[in-house]
Design goal:
It is a single chain. The chain is an alpha+beta fold. Helix content is about 40%, strand content about 15%. It has six helices and five strands; from the N terminus they run ααββββααβαα. It has a five-stranded mixed beta sheet with strand order 4-3-2-1-5. Strand 1 and strand 2 form a beta hairpin.
Length: about 170
């Protein structure tokens, strides 16, 4: 369970991410986040920042892996999107194409993901934005040239092998 200080720090950092969006988008994103937290108690919120796409992404997952999320909230400069896991399979639960029935779709996504919210559990706010920046910076670094293997070591390995029986 995360300590109160780290949770407060994570919330402050998340607030700084929301602050980068227009007021109406940030307000809608925060409101949807509150609804998802209430609907998915005990789930972790995994936060990603995709600067190249101008998006803030919050995945709701029973694990610490964003790719295992039941649903994902994404903020963009001009819109907020809600993504649900198992999209194509959800069509059976939304035969009339009533996207306003999001609760039905979330329930179906939970069922298909084989996970259930636990009102007694406390999920964590997991910020992955720093690790994203480190990976991006590492990817931009020029690759170092591979060092050629020591020829003495190769010879030693060859000699160490047991002789094969002649046929």
């Amino acid at each position: 369970m995360p300590d109160k200080q780290s949770t407060a720090d994570a919330e402050l950092e998340l607030a700084s991410f929301f602050a980068k969006y227009p007021a109406a988008i940030a307000k809608l994103g925060k409101a949807l986040r509150k609804k998802l937290q209430a609907r998915l108690p005990g789930f972790n919120e995994i936060v990603y920042v995709y600067e190249s796409q101008g998006s803030l992404v919050i995945s709701y997952s029973a694990s610490e892996n964003g790719y295992e999320a039941v649903c994902t909230l994404a903020l963009y400069e001009a819109e907020v999107k809600l993504f649900l896991a198992h999209g194509p399979q959800l069509a059976a639960f939304d035969a009339k194409k009533l996207r306003a029935e999001i609760e039905t779709l979330i329930a179906a996504a939970l069922k298909l993901s084989n996970v259930q919210p636990n009102p007694k559990a406390q999920g964590s706010l997991i910020l992955k934005a720093d690790s994203q920046k480190k990976r991006a910076a590492a990817a931009k670094q020029p690759k170092t040239q591979a060092v050629a293997p020591d020829p003495k070591r190769i010879v030693a390995k060859k000699r160490a092998r047991a002789p094969q029986a002649k046929r």
